[in-house]
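Appendix B, record 7
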Amino acid sequence: MKENRIKKVITEMEKENLSQMIVSSPSSLFYLTGKWFHPGNRMIALLIKSNGDHKLVINKLFPVEEDLGVDLVWYVDTENPVEVLAKYVDKDKELGIDKTWASHFLLSLMDLNAAKGYKNASPIIDNLRMIKDEEEIAIMKESSKRNDKTMKDLWSNLKEGMTEIECVELLEKLYAENGVHKFSFSPIIAVSPNGADPHHSTDDSVLKKGHSIVIDMGGVYNDYCSDMTRTVFFKEEPSEEHKKIYNIVREANERAIAMIKPGVKFSDIDNTARSYITEQGYGEYFTHRTGHCIGIDCHDFGDVSGVNHNEVKPGMIFSIEPGIYLSGNIGVRVEDLVLVTEDGCERLNKVTKELTVIK
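Structure tokens (predicted):
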């Protein structure tokens, strides 16, 4: 197990007067053990105890050859895994529960009166995962570097007459050539006017001269995600209206990034981007939050929104992605990942944000 991370979990548990908690999220299990588990509908539970007597309760279908630094408690399909777990839970103490643990497992544990009480303990690991350590930062920088290269490779290979689906297939191939073998989310490649739907589902729309293209893409490198959006124009200079909209979004992105430093509130970052777009007359067309945290999951816990009044801290990595979406006309989004440093922030994406026409 990642002992330094486990120690931090225990420190946070003690602040919450918890001596035991269950972790079941595959991403959090990877964060703590360095190993991925994909148990499907079978129960897996890492029981963390402040006294160090940790147990990983796991089905024998999922062999573990390496030493994870934790006692393994095996069960088979003919056993009730909750009853197996209950043997190791301190009955007279409160138990922290992972938010992703299936309710039927939790309800069964409650029926067994396995603990004195139950508490959502997910914020403990969620908040720890928000602050990346040096190893994670190095991986995420490399992940974004490869995402940058793949974006530029994609621009170089776009051809008139390609469908959005064909563009995504090309993107997958280019990622593989750059050592990235998995999308971090289903990519969005939306030719106009499809870009006006922020979460457009890629379809057989055809790329033509004069189109704008929203490209929202990310890959997984060494288990950590990248994410970036660029809006470009294809083979023809955009109209003055579309240039204006693009430059407003780009400026909103850059204004938000410029203010990021430790102590600034996520809500104030969101307001910086949103208020500028509103001042320019397009506030009602910016329909989503300004960003989200990212790491092992593309959407880690935490976001850049008007309702998140938490302060940013060194080591946090999140997106800044304002947009304007005019139905039936055009959508523009510009997204970068930023790393909060001791005195400001570092933008992880280096792909140009100058208005770009792909020739």
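Remarks on this record: Residues 8 and 128 are 8 Å apart (CA to CA). The mean pLDDT is 97.
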